[in-house]
């Protein structure tokens, strides 16, 4: 389903979000104060425009109010990042996602109304550290301090068995909520579902149990 997104700030982070959304078939408006950046990325988005996002009139002029979701990918200029989020929320943008460089910056972004603050350097660092510790873990979502959902490559010792035989609930206190079997997604797999080589299990549970499971060979 095609959606509309605006991305403000076409640095490395913003341009990566914008081009990924565009390549997936979405309509993407890219905005940057810097003419060279706009020129550089004009073919990676639907429209690219030069504007100073801290100026309400400039944002109105590029039609920002038509967008439901706006990503603020300005980092180094903290003042510009905060002002931009403030203006966007004042204009009534429903979902504003903003990049923060530090914890303090993030707190201020939430205070001025950001709906979701991301810390790309910190978050990517965490992900890589987790991956180094358990290479079978492809991705994870932290649900609470001690609980996560993880995508785990199935250990070879488990292939050719059914979920019932593996009995992950009893042995690891984990629930398999989906299986990605060579691109076919099985949601809420039944107990007789067979686990095949290269399957990826989406598993929910306590972090320590997930880690025990992901370290199996
Ligand atoms: P990244 O780490 O994502 O590569 P960066 O370090 O190159 O980003 P940032 O200072 O985070 O640079 O800015 C990202 C982009 O935001 C830059 O292209 C910059 O021109 C743009 N930008 C900064 N201020 C504004 C503003 N007021 N309005 C619009 N764009 C802006
Ligand atoms: P980040 O985007 O992760 O916050 P940064 O933009 O603050 O990083 P970088 O220039 O990427 O800074 O450098 C990261 C760290 O690497 C800094 O602490 C810097 O002091 C250190 N560093 C840079 N060059 C060298 C070097 N030649 N030897 C050792 N450390 C270095
Ligand atoms: Ca940067």
From TrEMBL:
Q: Where is the RCK C-terminal domain?
A: 135-217
Pfam families per UniProt: TrkA_C, TrkA_N
- GO molecular function terms here? monoatomic cation transmembrane transporter activity
Which terms under GO biological process does the entry name? potassium ion transport
Domain called RCK N-terminal: residue spans = 2-119
Family annotation (Gene3D superfamilies): NAD(P)-binding Rossmann-like Domain (3.40.50.720), Regulator of K+ conductance, C-terminal domain (3.30.70.1450)
Q: Which domain of life is it from?
A: Bacteria
Q: Which residues form a coiled coil?
A: none
Identification of the protein by name: Trk system potassium uptake protein TrkA
Q: What is the lineage of its organism?
A: Bacteria, Bacillati, Bacillota, Bacilli, Bacillales
């Amino acid at each position: 389903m095609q959606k509309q997104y605006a991305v403000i700030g076409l640095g490395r982070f913003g341009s990566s979000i914008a081009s990924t959304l565009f390549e997936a078939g979405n309509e993407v408006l890219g905005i940057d104060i810097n003419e060279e950046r706009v020129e550089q990325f004009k073919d990676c988005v639907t429209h690219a425009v030069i504007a100073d996002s801290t100026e309400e009139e400039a944002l109105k002029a590029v039609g920002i109010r038509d967008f439901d979701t706006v990503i603020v990918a300005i980092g180094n200029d903290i003042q510009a990042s905060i002002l931009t989020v403030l203006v966007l929320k004042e204009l009534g943008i429903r979902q504003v996602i903003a990049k923060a460089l530090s914890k303090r910056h993030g707190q201020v972004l939430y205070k001025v109304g950001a709906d979701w603050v991301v810390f790309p350097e910190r978050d990517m660092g965490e992900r890589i550290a987790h991956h180094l510790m358990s290479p079978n873990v492809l991705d994870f979502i932290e649900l609470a301090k001690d609980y996560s959902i993880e995508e785990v490559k199935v250990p070879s010792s488990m292939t050719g068995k059914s979920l019932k035989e593996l009995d992950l609930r009893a042995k690891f206190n984990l629930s398999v909520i989906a299986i990605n079997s060579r691109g076919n997604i099985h949601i809420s797999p039944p107990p007789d579902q067979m686990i095949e080589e290269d399957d990826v299990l989406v598993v929910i549970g306590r972090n320590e149990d997930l880690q025990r499971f992901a370290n199996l060979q």
